[in-house]
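Why should sequence recovery work at all? Because a backbone constrains its sequence more than one might expect. Tight turns favour small or flexible residues, buried strands favour hydrophobic ones, and helices have their own preferences. The token representation captures these environments compactly. In the example below, the structure is given first.
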């Protein structure tokens, strides 16, 4: 079943972004800050025969220029956009995304000291997720001096992040103290090599439908 019946276009920087994928595909997966884009490219290749569309949003134009022509060329189910995800997410219809991927977001969007800035963004993200959809958040804890992580500090941080996303209205589902094995990205590979100083946490955050 297709939930979106109208043609939607949106202004993106100095040109128009074609949002007709909303009409054509049953499922939508969005990656925020995709970096080199390889993860989304791989996922979209695995799913080429399903009716799923992959939308990647990256603010850094040099990364976008490298990813866009090389990776999404001639792929019907993948679009890389050079913009801030706040802007694009805000313009998606509510209840439109099956999965939103936030893989190792910039500290501005997850650190404790920036919480007041990012809380409204995750509230918007929650509105955009379908009833049975989820936000997959993979994030990391490090010591301020980048020394080996003290386990109790990690446990306190984990408690804080779970409480914060619960307070935002998410249901915290699976909690994994590593990266799911099917996921790989430039930063996942970098961070996984330093597990003493970088503790990774994966949260499946669903919507409370009651
Ligand atoms: C730590 S990197 C992670 C990249 C990728 N997810 C990975 O795992 O390799 C964070 C990425 O988010 C991008 N980014 C930061 N703020 C953004 C925003 N407001 N909108 C879109 N992308 C953003 C950065 O340019 C960078 O590529």
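From this structural description, the recovered sequence reads:
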């Amino acid at each position: 079943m297709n939930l979106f019946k109208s043609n939607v276009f949106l202004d993106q920087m100095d040109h128009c972004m074609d949002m007709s994928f909303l009409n054509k595909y049953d499922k939508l997966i969005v990656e925020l800050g995709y970096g080199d884009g390889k993860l989304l490219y791989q996922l979209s290749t695995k799913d080429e025969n399903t009716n799923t569309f992959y939308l990647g949003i990256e603010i850094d134009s040099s990364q976008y220029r490298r990813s866009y022509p090389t990776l999404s060329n001639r792929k019907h189910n993948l679009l890389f956009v050079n913009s801030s995800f706040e802007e694009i997410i805000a313009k998606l219809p509510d209840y439109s995304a099956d999965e939103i991927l936030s893989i190792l977001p910039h500290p501005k969007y997850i650190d404790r000291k920036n919480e007041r800035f990012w809380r409204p963004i995750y509230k918007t993200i929650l509105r955009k997720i379908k009833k049975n959809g989820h936000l997959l958040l993979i994030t990391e804890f490090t010591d301020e001096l980048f020394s080996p992580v003290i386990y109790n500090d990690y446990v306190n941080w984990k408690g804080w992040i779970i409480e914060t996303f619960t307070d935002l209205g998410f249901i915290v589902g699976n909690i994994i103290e590593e990266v799911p094995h099917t996921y790989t990205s430039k930063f996942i590979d970098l961070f996984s090599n330093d597990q003493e100083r970088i503790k990774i946490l994966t949260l499946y955050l669903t919507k409370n439908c009651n």
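A few observations help interpret the result. The radius of gyration is 17 Å.
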